[in-house]
């Protein structure tokens, strides 16, 4: 770790000494490197939990943040992330020692920079995501600290480093908690999910949390209509698609949402029962798209075609086809 020096003697002994002792080292730099390596394994995390090292790491994060010591802060956040990965004692200690507030302070500072520090943002969200896996009490603590303002700020950052762990946190908090899912799919929560969809549509995603989140909200629950129509606000007329094919009606994000949920349904055809509200909404979208597409205009034959409205028609038709492949069509059968 080059390029940045740290006056270690300026840090309190109650911060430095436990880290040096736990790592059997003589410098903070060496201590962090050793502890990060040790904490990658479950046995290492358990050993460090027995030494109650996490409160010391939180104090170090606070000190490094105030000192603007970025390289060491990155290392301290990596250690904190590792400690909170699947080790219940560390996760509980994190909450007991105001870890959420500490990490949130670091996160806010990194996110509100004119040039956001994506490395710190990513690590901060990974810490919170790991803690969120520890159970409903910790999930609700994170939710009440971050919803809606902090989540909205993070969802507005168009970065892969932000969207993946943010989706993990939102999914983990909402899964099995209908009340939180409802909050997320009403104002002021809807702009959060809409912002994530816009980000993933433009930069993609590496992990499966985005699909898990949309499956939870749109296929396992009834929130697809609200989210779909939220994505149209202020976007459709500026979409830049083919106006001859009706692209002033739908937005590219709406087409992308239909693409993703049609993929999820196809992948989970025997697992997911689509709510009638969602099926009927998609049927209405299909009928609307058919009424505005100019079938005489030329577009690519495969999806996506380059025309937003043709894509909406195509993905909604695929979605309806897969619903019809399932048993128990409910109200949809009456109107097909």
Q: From the alpha carbons, calculate the radius of gyration and give it in angstroms.
A: 24 Å
Which regions have little confidence, pLDDT < 50, spanning 5+ residues?
235-241
Can you give the helix content as a percent range? Answer: 55-70%
By CATH, the architecture of the largest domain is named Alpha Horseshoe
> What's the CATH H-level superfamily name of the largest domain?
Leucine-rich Repeat Variant
The outline comes out as elongated
Give the CATH level 1 class of the largest domain: Mainly Alpha
Distance between the termini: 64 Å
Number of DSSP strand runs: 0
Task: Quickly count the helices.
Answer: 19
Please trace the helix and strand order, writing H or E for each element: HHHHHHHHHHHHHHHHHHH
Query: Could you say which structural class the secondary elements and strand pairing correspond to?
Result: mainly alpha
Outline of the structure:
With 336 residues, the protein is mainly alpha-helical.
Provide structural commentary.
It is a single chain. Helix 5 (70-83) runs parallel beside helix 8, helix 7 (99-111) runs antiparallel to helix 8 and helix 17 runs antiparallel to helix 18 (308-324). This protein has 19 helices and no strands. By secondary structure, the chain is mainly alpha-helical. Mean pLDDT is 89; it is low at 235-241. The radius of gyration is 24 Å and the shape is elongated. It comes from Gossypium arboreum. This is Ataxin-10.
Features:
single chain; 336 residues; Leucine-rich Repeat Variant; 3 domains; 19 helices; Ataxin-10/CTR86_families; ARM-like; Ataxin-10; ARM-type_fold
